[in-house]
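Researcher: Going back to the complex we discussed earlier. I've cleaned up the inputs and rechecked each line, so this should be the final set. Can you rerun the prediction on the complete assembly and write out the structure?
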Amino acid sequence: MDIIQVGDLTFQLDYSKPLYEQIISQFRFDIAQGNIPLGTRTLSVRDLAKELKVNPNTVMRAYQELERDNLFETRRGHGTFVTSSQKKVDELQRSLATQAVSSFVTSIKSIGFTKDSAITLIEEAEWN
Amino acid sequence: MDIIQVGDLTFQLDYSKPLYEQIISQFRFDIAQGNIPLGTRTLSVRDLAKELKVNPNTVMRAYQELERDNLFETRRGHGTFVTSSQKKVDELQRSLATQAVSSFVTSIKSIGFTKDSAITLIEEAEWN
DNA sequence: ACAATTGTATTATATACCATAATACACTTA
DNA sequence: TAAGTGTATTATGGTATATAATACAATTGT
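Model: Rerun complete. Updated structure for the full complex:
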């Protein structure tokens, strides 16, 4: 479990999931939390790759998916920027939440739990 | 999306996840629901593979993981049986639920949601 | 105009996982 | 002994992930 400080951001990379997915998640989280001001320019593909000790292609893949999600805006020769639109951030947050909920519902149902018992489980869960 | 009836059980296989995982899930679900009486003998590795149009190795992998989970008991030359212990079924159900909850909590937190808002989302979710 | 810095694309290589296929072995029962 | 169990092994192929090296395209600053 590697922990890497990059400016204001903290990246935690391991091999439990693809690296590019972890990079995506951590940007999403930091944007959703306001840890990265909207409109900020990100590190370049090459620079972030260097910091994270990861291949530039891996960072590029993450940036491209974040752009497809409308969280990033990129311009050749110019750089990559976090969107300036709070609305897009909200939209993405909602859609990711919906997805998380629906995958939870699927899996908890698939082991034979009812809605009420599932809610109880969440209420009892630790939330640090 | 292939739907295959095998005796009392219905298998739905697709390519969204590994086949062996889907076989495992569906056995877990049917055992948890009581769709398979405890102590029942399952189809042999070869026979289930034939029914599902899947390689015997794939079924064997599923059976082996289910045995590690204490849901299946196998005896060479004899066959594979669903555990007779309701306690083991309950234990596994609890542990799978814990895992589902914790992975939901992780992902919903990672997009910046609080516990209360997460519970609201679950309450509003469809549960068919 | 030019150099430096951006994002982007391509090709090759290595590894891991998933699935199939064919075959053989080990054990139990009828 | 034959038939039906689970189990193990080896080979092959496809896909996803990650790295590496290289080149191209667009923008900016000097």
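Model: Worth noting: The mean pLDDT of chain A is 94.
Researcher: Good, that matches what I expected from the previous run.
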